Amino acid sequence: MSERALTADAGGPAAVLSGAGGRQARSVLWHVVVIAIVVVVIYPVIWMLGTSFKPATEIVTSNRPWPLHWTAHNFPAGWHANPGVTFGRFFTNSLVVSGLAVVGTLLSCSLAAYAFSRLEFRGRSVMFAAMVVTILLPYHVLIVPQYAIFKRFGWINTDLPLVAPKFLATEAFFIFLMVQFMRGIPREIDEAARLDGCGPYRTFLYVVLPLTRPALITSAIFSFIWTWNDFFTQLVYLNDTDKFTVPIGLSLFVDQTGMTSYGPMMAMSVLALAPVFLFFLAFQRLLVDGATSSGLKG
Questions:
Q1: CA 288/CA 134 separation, integer angstroms
Q2: Residues 40 and 102 in one domain
Q3: Helices 87-118 and 124-133, interaxial angle, to 10°?
Q4: pLDDT band at 254, cuts 50/70/90?
């Protein structure tokens, strides 16, 4: 047997073991990194949940995320923390604003997406490109002119600045998402609907829109979560306490001197997180299906 063959035979099993060991080491390292990231992400939520059940003295003296002495006092204290207005009012306001935002987003963005993806008109590509570019604009650049317009309309300190733009197809991200999905629907369906006597509106309503259900659900979930968590926009336009939403209501636990009622604030934060968490869990599968079928997967 030649020297090269002996060398190959001697190194073959070692090379195989080395390759398998390397893959196993990379797998272990990957899992360690993922677990560390999960712990970093989940720890603030665990701390918030534990703090909501801690007495006031234990919050500033104990470093443990869970309480040594459990108490539910923070929940009624946070619920009735603001004189004349309970936290339930803030929840109602947030539900109204978020619900109307979802309805407006689905109606307007689906119509705009249908026009960009299925209809032929002059300047369509230019208008679509300009719409996509607006995604890159920081919202803070637009807030000043928007505030001036809404003030002239007399809409300040009402829900209209938070809701009305949603009915005007101002959410470029959702339009883009629906356009990507509608482009995947075969054109032959439109032709068949046209032969059956359907015009553009009936084709959209009875043919294209039902097939766009995954993208609609994805848009509804993101729109609800983003509107529910929005703090800056609601802070700019709302002035009266009885019109505040949940994010602004949570900021009321910090007084003018910088003192913070951590227990009641964390208790209300847990309640504020619950609707979003449950909403996401209920539609998680549909969210993944809509994102992947809309071309947003990695």
A1: 25
A2: no
A3: 150
A4: confident
Tell me the Ramachandran region of residue 177: left when phi exceeds 0, alpha when psi lies from -120 to 50, beta otherwise.
alpha
Q: What's the number of domains the chain is made of?
A: 2
198, 204 contact by CB (below 8 A): no
- Domain holding 262: CATH number? 1.10.3720.10
Rounded distance, CA 213 to CA 139, Å?
28
Amino acid at 250: L
Residue 95 and residue 145 in one domain: yes
Q: What is the DSSP letter of 164?
A: G
Q: How far apart are CA 70 and CA 66, in angstroms?
A: 9
Q: First vs last Cα of the chain: how many Å apart?
A: 52
Question: For 221, how many CA atoms within 13 A lie in the half-sphere containing its CB?
Answer: 22
**Cα dihedral value 220, 225, 230, 234, nearest 10:** 50
Domain boundaries, position 103: 87-293
The token duo for 93 is 């306001």
- CA within 13 Å, CB half, 15: 6
pLDDT digits (tens, 9 = 90+) for 160-198: 999 999 999 999 999 999 999 999 888 898 889 888 888
What's the length of the chain? Answer: 298
User: Could you tell me the two tokens for 171?
Assistant: 């959410």
Domain boundary among 47, 74, 101: 74
pTM score, whole prediction: 0.82
Write out 169-190 in H/E/C secondary structure.
CCCHHHHHHHHHHHCCCCHHHH
What is the rounded distance in angstroms from the CA atom of residue 290 to the CA atom of residue 213?
A: 8
Closest CA to 117 of 203, 24, 23: 203
Which residue has tokens 């032959």? 188
What's the mean pLDDT in 19-40? 85
Beta bridge partners of 254: 260
